[in-house]
Amino acid sequence: MSTSSGAVHLTAPLFDTLTAPGAGPILVDFWASWCPPCRAIAPAIDALADEFAGQVAVAKLDIDAHGEIAERLGVASIPTLILFDNGVEVERLVGGLPKPELSDRLTALAARPS
Question: Is the model's pLDDT at 2 over the cut of 60?
């Protein structure tokens, strides 16, 4: 995983590692460079990655580069944000949500019992 600020950009093997059973909480933003709503929420996603560092991993998965993962998970629209905990999908959010709402969701995810 990258140590720089902002969301981690996932490869397929890293996605599988970070969403495997036993893995901690993670938010994965399924996006594409040609998607205006994806570009609009990108600054909020990067800011949340910094704010929740050490509590919830925040990552991005480019569906053009890794379409097989999006297809496997049934991601039909972007942006789609999927929250995983211990390798299990716990919530799916579709569309460009405001940062305060996303922050609330990450706070709840971080507070889930292990």
Answer: no
